[in-house]
TrEMBL record:
<feature type="transmembrane region" description="Helical">
    <location>
        <begin position="205"/>
        <end position="226"/>
    </location>
</feature>
<feature type="transmembrane region" description="Helical">
    <location>
        <begin position="7"/>
        <end position="24"/>
    </location>
</feature>
<keyword id="KW-0472">Membrane</keyword>
<feature type="transmembrane region" description="Helical">
    <location>
        <begin position="262"/>
        <end position="281"/>
    </location>
</feature>
<feature type="transmembrane region" description="Helical">
    <location>
        <begin position="36"/>
        <end position="57"/>
    </location>
</feature>
<feature type="transmembrane region" description="Helical">
    <location>
        <begin position="84"/>
        <end position="107"/>
    </location>
</feature>
<protein>
    <submittedName>
        <fullName>Sporulation integral membrane protein YlbJ</fullName>
    </submittedName>
</protein>
<feature type="transmembrane region" description="Helical">
    <location>
        <begin position="147"/>
        <end position="171"/>
    </location>
</feature>
<feature type="transmembrane region" description="Helical">
    <location>
        <begin position="119"/>
        <end position="141"/>
    </location>
</feature>
<keyword id="KW-0812">Transmembrane</keyword>
<feature type="transmembrane region" description="Helical">
    <location>
        <begin position="293"/>
        <end position="314"/>
    </location>
</feature>
<keyword id="KW-1133">Transmembrane helix</keyword>
Length: 315
């Protein structure tokens, strides 16, 4: 029933875009162009290198050595194996949807269990420092001096979300190290083949992400046509559709800078439905639930809203 509803919503979205292409081709063209420029100028150069390097780290089993660093906090705080820390850190550094991709990769390599992966997904898919400090704080809100605080709040919220959902998933500590062992690649020929495949997989993923960005940019332009009296509510809703363009619109509301920052930080934590669609794409070859992930992002967004609000109350 749930799958049917998801497919039904997808059909509606496709039909709406088709209608807009016929009725207002110029308007749709402009929205698609904005999405394409966002993808080519921001997403590709900032995300593609991380995707390829991450693929190599996992394929060559380097992640096993990295896991040693994160093993203490992952094991004793989140009841997860050390490799889970790699997903959180690289997901944090490279941004959406890299954290989800790494979780899916670790699961497919049997480095974590299904339950561990679903739990890890609740707090490992986050916005990157480049996005928060550069694009949002300096480029959109012009509050570069506050950017680092917003970033810290986002990451604290992410970690707190993980703590909260630890009571939901109740990971068995006996299964922390119950994963399949992988050996390093020995043959140079095999290594080059794997390197080529990592590049191909990276390009494939970045193109799919581009498709989602363009698709939701058009959706955003259509939603923007809905007559809503409150500009604050309207632009906040637009931000939940696609965060990059939505945040830009939210920065133009006539409210004070504190209100803008609180709402923008909340949207960043939530990710937006464009990011959720990208996340669904990177985990599609697993049995991970996108619905449970979105629920966790709602909790994450609420925590971020409260912490950002408290920041301005006590600053």
């Amino acid at each position: 029933m749930i799958k049917f509803k998801k497919r039904y919503l997808l059909y509606i979205g496709v039909i709406l875009i088709l209608i807009s292409l016929i009725i207002a081709p110029k308007y749709t063209f402009e929205a698609a162009t904005e999405g394409l420029l966002l993808w080519s100028n921001v997403i590709v150069p900032s995300l593609l290198p991380f995707i390829i390097v991450s693929n190599l780290i996992i394929q060559f089993n380097i992640v096993r050595y990295i896991s040693i660093i994160f093993n203490p906090i992952m094991k004793y705080v989140y009841k997860l194996p050390g490799v889970a820390g790699y997903a959180w850190v690289l997901g944090m550094l490279s941004g959406y949807p890299m954290g989800a991709k790494i979780v899916a990769d670790l699961l497919n390599k049997n480095l974590i269990t299904q339950k561990q992966a679903q739990y890890l997904l609740t707090f490992s898919n986050n916005a990157s420092p480049m996005f928060v400090l550069g694009f949002v704080s300096v480029g959109i809100l012009d509050v570069g001096n506050l950017g680092i605080y917003l970033l810290i709040i986002l990451y604290i919220s992410s970690l707190l979300t993980g703590v909260i959902f630890s009571f939901v998933y109740r990971i068995d500590t006996k299964n922390i190290n119950n994963t399949k062992k992988y050996t390093l690649v020995k043959s140079n020929e095999t290594a080059f083949k794997i390197f080529d495949q990592c590049i191909i997989d990276g390009v494939d993923l970045i193109v799919r992400i581009g498709g989602y960005v363009i698709f939701f940019s058009i959706i955003l332009s259509l939603v923007n046509l809905i007559p809503i009296d409150s500009l604050l509510i309207k632009n906040f809703l637009l931000g939940t559709v696609e965060i990059s363009n939505g945040i830009s619109l939210l920065s133009k509301i006539p409210n004070g800078i504190e209100t803008k920052i609180v709402l923008v930080n909340t949207i960043i934590a939530f990710g937006g439905f464009s990011v959720h669609a990208q996340t669904a794409s990177v985990i599609q070859n697993t049995n991970l639930s996108i619905t449970k992930y979105v629920l966790a992002k709602c909790v994450n967004a609420f925590i971020t809203f409260l912490l950002t609000l408290l920041f301005f109350i006590f600053i």
